[in-house]
Specification:
Radius of gyration: 16 Å
Largest sheet: none
Number of helices: 8
Order of helices and strands: HHHHHHHH
Structural class: mainly alpha
Strand content: under 5%
Helix content: 55-70%
Number of strands: 0
Length: 161
């Protein structure tokens, strides 16, 4: 669990720093970094869900504190985007954790998503879905590249009626 959180702590701020101060681009980059770390540690992420109940109370408190710490860069750029009017009025805590849950969803439901999407397509689809719901309407055009997918995932034989 700590290895995953350490990877978040290392890579998310680096991803954000590449975005030249644009908070919406930074949100997308941070989400991509979270997903990439989860993909690289998919089995550890799954194991952490199953085995976190075996942690001591002190261990669980430590893990929770580390998780909050490693999600702060994302909350920061969300708050920045909201303060600049790029986002509708959002709760930065809730939105940040929605993005984190989407990132963890790649590990939790990989068996399902991998049938139609590779990691990059998953990141693009989930980021587009989430950003469309919170971008201020005045900025939809500016961030079209993040909210509209060039290719839509295709249904496979197991989902066709």
């Amino acid at each position: 669990i700590v290895d995953v959180l350490d990877a978040f702590e290392e890579r998310v701020p680096v991803a954000i720093a590449t975005c030249a101060g644009d908070p919406i681009e930074a949100i997308a980059a941070a989400f991509g970094a979270y997903c990439t770390v989860i993909d690289e540690h998919r089995q550890a992420a799954l194991l952490s869900y199953r085995e976190s109940k075996s942690l001591t109370r002190e261990g669980l408190v430590r893990i929770k504190a580390l998780e909050i710490q490693t999600s702060e860069p994302l909350r920061h750029v969300i708050r920045e985007g909201a303060s600049l009017g790029l986002l509708i009025d959002v709760d930065a805590e809730i939105l940040a954790y929605n993005f984190l849950l989407l990132a963890h969803g790649w590990a939790l439901k990989h068996w399902y998503f991998e049938r139609k999407l590779d990691l990059d397509a998953y990141i693009a689809c989930q980021c587009a879905f989430a950003l469309r719901s919170v971008l201020h309407p005045n900025y939809l055009g500016k961030y079209r590249h993040l909210i509209e997918l060039a290719t839509k995932p295709q249904p496979d034989a197991t989902t066709s009626l």
